[in-house]
From TrEMBL:
This is Uroporphyrinogen-III synthase HemD family protein. GO terms for biological process: tetrapyrrole biosynthetic process. InterPro entries: 4pyrrol_syn_uPrphyn_synt_sf (IPR036108), 4pyrrol_synth_uPrphyn_synth (IPR003754). It comes from Chlamydia avium 10DC88. It holds the Pfam family HEM4. Residues 27-216 form the Tetrapyrrole biosynthesis uroporphyrinogen III synthase domain. GO terms for molecular function: uroporphyrinogen-III synthase activity.
Length: 236
């Protein structure tokens, strides 16, 4: 990111629209989630099947902090199985959620915080590996397609969806910067504003950026993990 652009970001008020309050703090942004997480019922067929598959699983894919927290909340009765598994994690915040629940967990961390980043961790797994992959109903099929293509033994299932929160558009008036974290967040913002207000928009990850550019002609910048790690305290 150009230093002058990033300087403007650091010196103005920011709203973080994602689901993770800890990441909002890392950007020194106000936490204003535009989506709400809606878990599927425990009685849902895919949830019951996942619980059964867990007993034969060797690896679990954890793709986001929200998915990780929900997964362990649902599976905590089966901790004796969870302790012995290997976890494939996307993102440091996801990893932290894992270690909060299982401090001694065996894990591998993807080098990039995208679905594509975890594929090199899956590729060398042996034929007798059994993978469980909980995800959002809006997740891109990158991981499931790869598992199928590589003939891996796996069970992938959606255990939650997300829906737009009922927000008053005026809540965003004080903010100069808006951070989007997912394509779903961009679409939810579009429902609030048919034409985007004059603000500085930032997208976490290239997929979110692509969704924004399909939706609006407003100026937008890609916000990287490196930007998050070096974000100084704001002066507002």
């Amino acid at each position: 990111m150009h230093p002058q652009i990033y300087k403007r970001f650091c010196e103005t008020k920011t709203a973080y629209l994602g689901l993770n309050s800890q990441t909002a703090k890392q950007y020194h942004a106000d936490y204003i989630p535009i989506l709400k997480l809606v878990p599927y019922a425990k009685s849902s067929p895919q949830i019951r099947q996942a619980t059964h598959y867990l007993k034969r699983t060797s690896h679990i894919v954890l793709s986001s902090p929200s998915s990780t927290s929900l997964f362990f909340a649902r599976m905590k009765k089966h901790k004796q199985y969870l302790r012995n598994l290997h976890y494939l994690c996307i993102g440091k915040v996801t990893l932290k959620r894992l270690l909060d629940f299982l401090p001694r967990a065996h894990y591998s961390l993807a080098t990039t915080e995208t679905s594509e980043g975890i594929l090199p961790l899956i590729l060398p797994l042996t034929d007798n590996t059994r993978i469980l992959y909980p995800h959002s109903s809006f997740s891109r099929p990158v991981i499931t397609d790869f598992l199928t293509r590589e003939n891996k033994q796996f069970f992938a299932y959606s255990h939650y969806t997300v829906r737009p929160r009922d927000l008053d558009p005026s809540i965003f008036s004080p903010y100069k910067n808006i951070i989007f974290t997912s394509p779903s967040g961009v679409r939810a913002y579009t429902k609030l504003f048919s034409r985007f207000p004059n603000k500085i928009y930032w997208c976490l990850g290239p997929i979110t950026l692509q969704e924004f550019q399909k939706t609006s002609n407003s100026q937008v910048y890609l916000l990287t993990n490196a930007d998050r790690d070096k974000a100084p305290e704001k002066k507002v």
